[in-house]
Amino acid sequence: MEKNNIEPVIEVLKVNKSYTMGQEKLHVLKNVSFTVQKGDLLALTGPSGSGKSTLMNILGCLDSIDNGDYLLDGTSVLKRNANQLADIRSKNIGFVFQNFSLLSRMSALENVELPLLYSETKNSKKKAMEALDIVGLSDRMKHEPNQLSGGQRQRVAIARAIVNDPALILADEPTGNLDSKTGLEIIDLFHRLNKEGRTIIVVTHEQDVANECHRQLHMLDGVLQKEFFKKRKKPQISTDKTCEVK
Question: For residue range 167-180, what is the model confidence (pLDDT) as tens digits?
Fold first, then answer.
C-alpha cells in the first residue's frame, strides 16, 4: 500500500490473546499486527474459530490482551480500567450489531438519543434527529422497532452508532439478519458514510460483503493470514448530509 499522510485510527501491535480451559491454554490470537487509517472501510473475515470475534471484542474495548498493544485514535487502551474503557467505548466507538440491539419500547429517536443522554451531551434530541436524517429515516423517528422493517431497524442502529461522531464504527455481521437486497442497501449506506470520512470495520463471513470494502483482513487459527486491497481514494467530506436508502 502506498504511503500517505492519513492518520491512523487503529494500531494493533503484536497482539496475543489466550484463554485457559481447564488445564489447557488456548491461543486465540497470535502476534496480530495491522493499522487502520482514518477513512478506511475494512472487512475482517475468517471462519468460525479463526479469532475474528475475539479480535473484534478487543477492537471494541470489550476484551483485554495478554501482550502487545492496541492504540485507538492515538491512545493505548492497554492499561485502562473498566470505567475508562467504558468512556472510550461511548465516545470513540460506534457499534452496529447483527440483531440491531434496539430497545423495543423506545422510538427510533429515543434509541438514537440514548448514547447522548449517557454522556450528558447538549442538544441531544437535535443531534439524534440529524443522525436519523443522515440514514434516511427522518419520517420514522416516532416509530418503535416493531413498526419498522429489518433494514430500517439496522439504519436506526447505524444512526445510533454515528450520533457521537466516533473515531471508529465497528459493525458485527451487519447484514446477517437481512435479505440480500436490504443487505446491499446497508452496505451502500456504509459506503456513503465512508465517503464522508468515517472509518468503518465490518466483521463478516459473507465474501460478497467483504468484497465491497477497500481492504480485507483474513484470519485463520488466530493468525492474520492475508490482506487484500482495492484501489482507495482519499476520503472526502461530503456536503450532502443525507444518505437516501430505500
Answer: 999 999 999 999 99
